Amino acid sequence: MLRLLSFLLFLVTWWIAALLIGDVKLPAPPAVLTVMLREAASGALFINLGATLARVALSFTLAMALGAAIGYLMGRVKLADRIGDPWLILLLNLPALVVIVLAYIWAGLTEVAAIAAIAVNKLPTAVVMLREGTRALDRSLDEMATVFAIPRGRAFRHVILPQLGPYIAAAARSGLSLVWKIVLVAEYLGRPNGVGFEIGVAFQLFDIPLLLAYSLTFAAVVLVIETVLVQPFELRTSRWRPRAA
Amino acid sequence: MQLEVEITGKHFESAAGERHHVLADIKFSLRAGEVGVFVGPSGCGKSTMLKILAGLDHDYQGKVSRPTAARLGMVFQEPRLLPWRSVEDNIRLAAPSIDEKRLSELFDVLELTEHRSHFPGELSLGLARRVALARAFAIEPDFLILDEPLASLDDALAAHLREQIATLVESRVVITLLVTHNLDDAVHLGDRLFLLSARPARILQEVPIPTPRTTRSAAEINHIKADLVQRRLAKI
What we know:
The complex is a heterodimer. Chain A has helices at 2-21, 29-42, 44-76, 78-93, 96-107, 111-135, 139-147, 152-190, 195-205, 208-237. By secondary structure, chain A is an all-alpha fold. Chain A has a single domain (48-237), classed as MetI-like (MetI-like fold, Orthogonal Bundle). Chain B is α/β, with parallel strands linked by helices. Chain B is built from seven helices and nine strands. Chain B starts with a strand and ends with a helix. The relative contact order of chain B is 0.19. The A-B interface holds A 140-141, 143-144, 146-150, 154, 158-159, 162, 165, 240-242 and B 51, 54-56, 71-74, 76, 78, 80, 82-85, 93-94, 119, 121-122, 135, 139.
């Protein structure tokens, strides 16, 4: 109910702002909705959204899988941490734009370059979070697993992984918000489709209803995915924690 | 089946680089069915010794011969339960092949039946310790280590849990090693008591208790306790 109220407040504010600023710079909600429906009817909206979501899914999965494995290794093995740390600092501080431009120069304006560039941008945050999670693992539970001769695979699944759960969820949440932002830049700079590409076209044509139609649809999809997937996952990983009174 | 222990030294280095001598001379053996109790002052190195016996620490001088293929069950000082698994799932993780009948019996003896689906965060310390005991017995151990399993419990609860431990120990032939600084626990549960010195720990005296656990009278227990206090004072 509160969410609906919040959405209505957003619409009213937007409408009033549109009336004050004028249609040329800020079109009112009906004008944007008309463009949305037109793009949806032609199928372009779904094709572009689909392309963007596919890139997000691929780069996010790649970055999370690699980041979790590297982070776990760095948290467990001191030598790996020492070797990997300078790389991590470099990647953490490298602007996303530099990575994307270099990827397009080295690998061409290809899908692989775009996905790799997005994944590389997200990778270091996943590594850092999982490294910290691994460092915080409870050694006394490791000892318990050793004493009771719990096989390594079972111990990893039932003793280690649940401890890393909150860190994986946090890495997923922050990583996803990062990927949502970077994917549009990558598409804007070097892909022939996707929400970022369409926003680029709208910018060049100064077509603000089109720009807002794609931006808002994208934002709505992000919101739905956050609500339907990310938040339940976070809740699931921490459901055993006693609730605060 | 026998446990043979001969630890001649154990050292560790502190973060400041200082070398500490923790264990000096620990030599004993325990047969199946026997309960050996180690009594010593806090911080003397009892837990370090248990880590060696449990195979968690291999960096020591000496030799420990555990019975081959012996199943080890351990109750740590803190219950060390997985907070994300229910009581029953914690036990099943350590003992995946336990059958429902045996599990129900254990829950029954330790009065845990109504808590089997609870999470450890919902349990009191006394209940969590009982779950840790249930887990150690669920694997049907040949060698059982109990590291101060009754510490920080009130007297009534400790006495109750002590009776439950006694029942479980009597229920199967197992080498049991109990570490405590509580003489009541030592005399109630032990067959042989080992008095440890302050750090570096060495065995000062071995005190056998000839009467079976189940037939010890209150007077006899008090007499042994008084004798132990005298022995400890004499060694200081």
